[in-house]
Design brief:
The complex is a heterodimer of chains A (269) and B (168). With 269 residues, chain A is an alpha+beta fold. Chain A has two domains: 39 residues, no CATH class; 174 residues, no CATH class. In chain A, strand 18 and strand 19 form a beta hairpin. The two termini of chain A are 30 Å apart. Chain B is built from six helices and five strands; from the N terminus they run αααααβββαββ. Chain B is elongated, with a radius of gyration of 24 Å. With 168 residues, chain B is of the alpha+beta class. The chains are: A alpha+beta (269), B alpha+beta (168). The interface between A and B is large, with 62 and 65 residues. Strand 9 of chain A pairs antiparallel with strand 1 of chain B, so a sheet runs across the interface.
């Protein structure tokens, strides 16, 4: 998501083509060509200009609704409602790719969360994040906290510092052997692997309640032992009322992220 | 069509100009259309060429079409039946390219949102597990369902008085 004011002019963008599966847009005012993923003008009168990144989130509707009291949702355009593919994610994942990076350990359509800081780029494989969230890491000299939300689908990245001091976070309840994914997706456990289904059966055998109530999701920091919510704000403990700084990050396919961040590293743990 | 035959004619120069203009007009539309295809690799050089041509195509194809029509009128009466067919077919192609260079066929595949309508979170029929792009400026918090954005790709919006381009 980008701001669209350049040199004092508000631009209006439209879809103008595609460049190796990342779309190109042009603005009605100058006809300049812009690359969607970088926000950079690559051809035309404004060539060389950059759009300013807007801090945005990729969340589930449920997570967003729980955080925002009076938000607005883009309504479907009735004329095109049939074209909205509810199954867009697996459908897109099946599309062919036209560029690949064979030397790397990820596959072209692997989903990563990518971020750039201090000249360094890092890609976090989505599967790793879901398993290990919260992930503590350093990128470009800054401590980062990458967290997958209580729903197992939303994510956010924060600077892992409280009052300027590096901090460590872990998921509350994790020590008791509960994973974020299991706590977050009670309804999906049926559709999960047989092993997961067995675990679900075992737990429902000991606890007769058919639908487990999801525990409130909190991160705990090791310095002040405060509870932090998914918005990155401390809701109890010594840090109560404080919020962590946000870091823009992008969920993308590996080939696309790697193509525009050739020096990116891949998070491993 | 045999160009050598034509250039041997006394009226060879108008024919040559007609055909060169026609090729230019057709290339201005078709080369970028060929390069910028969804499931085709775009090298930086090819993409640069495609954008340069497409950028000039609206007036370039129009100029080519005008030159062609003038020459077509000049050549028509002296042309035999086969040449008339060639003139007519080429003219149709050049006109097609001049029209296409003014139309955005990408928006035929993925229609833009002409005027965005919003609903409240409680009125929305979205399932809570659906992914959205969320942004907030001051009190203005907005959600763009990815299912919708994956089709439209671009949305020009104003959030809390900040003009933003929502892209997916």
């Amino acid at each position: 998501m980008w701001t669209r004011t350049v040199n004092g002019t508000v631009l209006h963008f439209y879809l103008a083509g595609i460049n190796n599966q990342n779309f190109l847009m042009r603005d009605k005012e100058t006809g300049t060509w812009w690359q969607q993923i970088t926000g950079k003008a690559i051809y035309g009168p404004l060539k060389g200009a950059s759009l300013e990144l807007v801090l945005s989130d990729e969340l589930t509707f449920g997570e967003w609704k729980s955080e925002v009291s009076d938000g607005k949702v883009l309504a479907p355009v009735a004329k095109y409602a049939k074209k909205y593919d509810s199954n867009w994610e697996p459908e897109v994942a099946k599309l062919p790719v036209v560029i690949s990076f064979p030397g790397t350990e990820l596959k072209s359509r692997d989903v990563v969360v990518g971020l750039t800081n201090g000249g360094a780029s890092r890609a976090y494989p989505w599967e790793t994040l879901v398993k290990q969230s919260p992930v503590m890491d350093h990128v470009g000299g800054t401590p980062m906290l990458v967290a997958v939300g209580p729903d197992g689908k939303s994510f956010r990245v924060f600077v892992s510092r409280i009052d300027g001091k590096d901090a460590e976070f872990f998921l509350k309840g994790e020590a008791e052997g509960e994973t974020a994914a299991a706590a977050a997706k009670p309804t999906e456990s049926k559709a999960a692997t047989p092993a997961a289904a067995k675990v679900a059966d075992a737990s429902s055998a000991t606890a007769p309640a058919p639908t487990p109530i999801p525990k409130p999701w909190f991160l705990l920091d090791t310095t002040t032992a405060s509870e932090w919510n998914f918005q990155g704000c401390a809701v109890s403990g010594a840090s109560q009322g404080k919020c962590l700084d946000r870091v823009p990050a992008l969920k993308d396919y590996w080939f696309d992220w790697r193509n525009y961040h050739p020096d990116t590293s891949i998070y491993k743990h | 069509m045999n160009r050598l035959d034509q250039s041997r004619d006394r009226g060879g120069l108008p024919w040559l100009i007609f055909l060169v203009s026609a090729v230019a007009g057709i290339a201005l539309f078709f080369i970028p259309a060929f390069i910028i295809q969804p499931f085709r690799h775009q090298s930086p050089r090819a993409l640069g060429l495609a954008m340069a041509l497409r950028h000039r195509a609206p007036w370039g194809t129009l100029a080519a079409a005008l030159v062609c029509i003038v020459l077509l009128l000049a050549l028509w009466s002296a042309a035999n039946r086969w040449r008339k067919i060639v003139l007519a077919l080429v003219m149709v192609m050049v006109t097609f390219c001049a029209v296409m260079a003014r139309l955005n066929y990408f928006e035929w595949m993925f229609h833009p949102v002409s005027s965005a309508q919003f609903e409240t979170a409680s009125a929305s029929k979205l399932d809570k597990s659906e992914m959205i792009l969320a942004v907030r400026y001051g009190d203005d918090a907005r959600a763009y369902p990815i299912r919708e954005m994956a089709y439209h790709h671009v949305l020009n919006d104003v959030v809390g008085s900040v003009p933003v381009a929502v892209t997916y």
